Structures are given as structure tokens and as C-alpha cells.
Amino acid sequence: MYAPPRFPSKHRFVLAATLMAALVVPGASSAGSAAGVDNGLKLAFLYNFSKFVRWPEHALPVDAERFVLCVHGDPYLLADMRAALGTKQAQGRAITLVDTARGDDPRGCHILFVTEPSEESAGQLLGRVRDAAVLTVGENETFTDRGIIGLYSDGQRLRFAVNLGAAGRAGLELNARLLDLAKVVSDE
After folding, report:
1. What is the domain partition of the chain in residue ranges?
2. How confident is the model at residue 12 (pLDDT cuts 50, 70, 90)?
3. Is this model's pTM higher than 0.85 or not?
């Protein structure tokens, strides 16, 4: 049975403030894709996911110097992330941003954010990291059919769904507080 890791209270506060608050999504009117959501809001979710997931030792060794956040499909989001992240850290390591659309190996990512609208391209990419210790995140609720976390708009709020089966196969442990805020699905 998974025992949720203990996180410092400041991290719990950041998660609660970011994810539980009434996050207004400009222009959203019904459940659907998060593609039209402000990039800053997406980044806030991705950054907070990094704080509430535990990677296996082989994927994030104690002596690792960097935490790799990959984006596939949206160069504007990547540019916004570079500007916003600055010297922020994840898991006590410097964050390195990678554009997997340029051919970088997605198996080297800790978080892989897939914004590619092409189902075929996204499917091939996810096939390469299936069962690897990579937290896959996409821009719609049905992303959990193939990946771990799907961001989606629900009226005026940005929400997320989590596929526990996919997370387990990847060897990732998701904090109970994160799961309390998610729509949980499982493919097991």
C-alpha cells in the first residue's frame, strides 16, 4: 500500500493555493481541452506536479543535478516557461527545459507535457515512454486513456484527471493530497 510521502507544509500550501483556488480560465465555457488556457496557469500546474510526485531512485538519483521538464508540440509554451522559471528548482534540482519536438529522447524527461494536436504523433511519443518513469501530462481529460495526467477546463476552472494504473506502471508515487484534488481514473 502506498504511504504518501510527507512534504513540507510550504509545499502543501503552494499546491492548495494553486490547485484548489478558483482558477479562472479565460474564454472557457464548458468541459474540454485545456489548449486555450493561459500558459502561466499550465506552468503552475506542471511545477506543482513536480512537488507532489516521487520518482524511483533510478530515474531521479540523489546525486542528479537537474530535473528535466519536456514540452512536445507548443514552442510558445516552452518560451513562456523559459521566461517564467528562471532559477526555480524542482525536487531540489535545477530545472532543464527540453523541446522533444526537436527529436530529443522523451525517456530522459521527468515530466513530459504533450501539447501536440496530432493523435498519431502524440501516440508515438507516448509509446516511447510507456512504463518509463516519466510523468506524462496532456491537454485534455481523455489524455488519461494513454498518459498519466490530463489537464482540462471545466467551466471557469482548470482541473486534472489522473490515471493511477499508468502512474503505477511508470513507478511514480503520487501524493495523496494531489489525488484528493484530481478526478481519479484507473485502467487496471
Report:
1. 33-183
2. very low
3. no
